[in-house]
């Protein structure tokens, strides 16, 4: 087992061989990955050293203090938080070595082709078809609400390979090259004026069987791994005190005493405490993650994240009164990331409306928490054992 002292030595060796001031950014990130300092809990040769996950924070802090570049994690969050742990869990050795390094360095951006116009909350009802053709699969269908599809080189994709089986069992998981013929990305303009989301049309896209992740028909199991990691990455991100949405509201409260009222003060105090509780709960969840794969508890964190963001942004607009109704820029843009704290209050208010939809709707997550965390009886599902082709649409 690699120790903290051994990691310190590796950090010093990396910095000596590749001084950040004189090393091109991508070259430094590649060297960091090869030194096992990308994600230290991953296996040796895949960006890690098999060390405890808890030691990663010390590595990150030491490299940051030395002026080393990071991999811009907000820009490549889907790859880091969803694709990578799924590839690690289900990928072949060849897939792991091909995809993990450029994913971590940010040389290849990833997106997630899961939701469809008729299969969002009920993802298992998806209808995108993948038909075997020799050593390839021919994929045809439509995906929607795809963040970063306009930037992505690769996508994690779930498609139906056997319509005669019940909906959860006839699904297979693929890695899709977004530059392949037949992949069309169209922008979806949102209430913010931006188009960070996209709809993706797949028309006869040919995916090699070598890019199948997991077994044929194992796609739902593989997708659940992705979804649990997604909810942790959204709801359980590491934040300092007053990080996230509560920070700008607290700063405005301190700087603008003329805006204060007793009622707003009470609401701010309640939300500040809830945000701090959520932050500390997220820290505890990350410590539990050190012992293995994320479980359904991440759904609870995602629920809290969505509710708090919406309530806090509503309070901020109300605190600013008429100023809160202003909006900085409605220009149609295709952003590379969501910047909650770098924009104005109006943007935060509008963008947070999507938090209770993306990464699993709050209604579905409530069911997961009820059934898989609290152990309550499941809701009746009369379509669970029917062949997918016989389901009402």
Average pLDDT rating: 91
Instruction: Categorize the overall geometry.
Output: globular
How many individual helices?
A: 11
SSE arrangement, N to C: HHHHHEEEEEEEEHHHHHH
Share of residues in strands: 5-15%
Helical fraction: 40-55%
Describe the structure.
The protein has helices at about 5-15, 25-35, 55-65, 75-90, 95-105, 220-235, 245-255, 260-290, 295-320, 345-350, 360-375, and strands at about 110-115, 130-135, 135-145, 155-160, 170-175, 185-190, 195-210, 210-215. With about 400 residues, the chain is an alpha+beta fold. A four-stranded mixed β-sheet has the order 1-4-5-8.
How are the SSEs ordered, and which strands pair?
Elements: H1 4-17, H2 25-34, H3 56-65, H4 77-90, H5 93-105, E1 110-113, E2 129-133, E3 136-143, E4 154-160, E5 171-177, E6 183-188, E7 197-208, E8 212-213, H6 219-235, H7 246-255, H8 262-289, H9 297-320, H10 345-351, H11 362-373
Parallel strand pairs: 1-4
Antiparallel strand pairs: 2-3, 3-7, 4-5, 5-8, 6-7
Helix pairs in contact: 1-3, 2-5, 4-5, 4-6, 6-9, 7-9, 8-9, 9-10, 9-11
Summed up:
The chain is built from 11 helices and 8 strands. The chain has helices at 4-17, 25-34, 56-65, 77-90, 93-105, 219-235, 246-255, 262-289, 297-320, 345-351, 362-373, and strands at 110-113, 129-133, 136-143, 154-160, 171-177, 183-188, 197-208, 212-213. Helix 2 packs antiparallel against helix 5 (93-105), helix 6 packs parallel to helix 9 and helix 9 packs antiparallel against helix 11 (362-373).
């Amino acid at each position: 087992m690699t120790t903290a002292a051994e990691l310190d030595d590796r950090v010093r060796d990396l910095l000596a061989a590749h001084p950040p001031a004189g090393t091109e950014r991508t070259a430094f990130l590649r060297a960091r990955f090869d030194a096992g300092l990308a994600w230290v809990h991953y296996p040796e040769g895949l960006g890690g050293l098999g060390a405890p996950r808890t030691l990663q924070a010390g590595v990150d802090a030491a490299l940051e203090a030395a002026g080393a570049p990071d991999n811009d994690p907000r820009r490549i969050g889907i790859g880091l938080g969803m694709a990578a742990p799924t590839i690690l869990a289900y990928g072949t050795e060849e897939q792991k070595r091909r995809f993990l390094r450029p994913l971590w360095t940010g040389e290849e951006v990833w997106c997630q082709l899961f939701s469809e116009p008729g299969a969002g909350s009920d993802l298992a009802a998806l209808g995108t078809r993948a038909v075997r053709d020799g050593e390839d699969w021919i994929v045809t269908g439509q995906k929607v609400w795809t963040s970063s599809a306009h930037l992505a080189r690769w996508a994690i994709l779930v498609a139906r390979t056997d319509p005669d089986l019940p909906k959860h069992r006839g699904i297979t998981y693929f890695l899709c090259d977004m530059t392949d013929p037949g992949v069309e990305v169209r922008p979806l303009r949102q209430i913010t004026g931006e188009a960070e989301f996209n709809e993706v049309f797949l028309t006869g896209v040919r995916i090699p069987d070598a890019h199948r992740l997991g077994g044929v028909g194992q796609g739902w199991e593989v997708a659940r791994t992705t979804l649990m990691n997604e909810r942790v990455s959204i709801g359980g991100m590491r934040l300092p005190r007053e990080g996230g949405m509560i920070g700008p509201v607290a700063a405005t409260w301190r700087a603008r005493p003329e805006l204060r009222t007793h009622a707003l003060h009470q609401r701010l105090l309640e939300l500040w405490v809830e945000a701090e509780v959520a932050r500390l709960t997220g820290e505890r969840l990350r410590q539990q993650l050190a012992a293995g794969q994320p479980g359904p508890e991440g759904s609870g964190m995602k629920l809290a994240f969505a509710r708090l963001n919406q309530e806090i942004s509503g309070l901020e607009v109300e605190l600013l009164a008429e100023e809160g109704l202003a909006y900085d820029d409605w220009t149609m843009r295709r952003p590379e990331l969501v910047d909650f704290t770098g924009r104005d209050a109006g943007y935060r208010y509008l963008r947070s409306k999507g938090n209770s939809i993306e990464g699993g709707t709050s209604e579905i997550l409530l069911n997961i928490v009820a059934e898989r965390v609290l152990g309550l009886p499941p809701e009746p599902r009369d379509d669970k054992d029917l062949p997918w082709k016989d389901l009402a649409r």
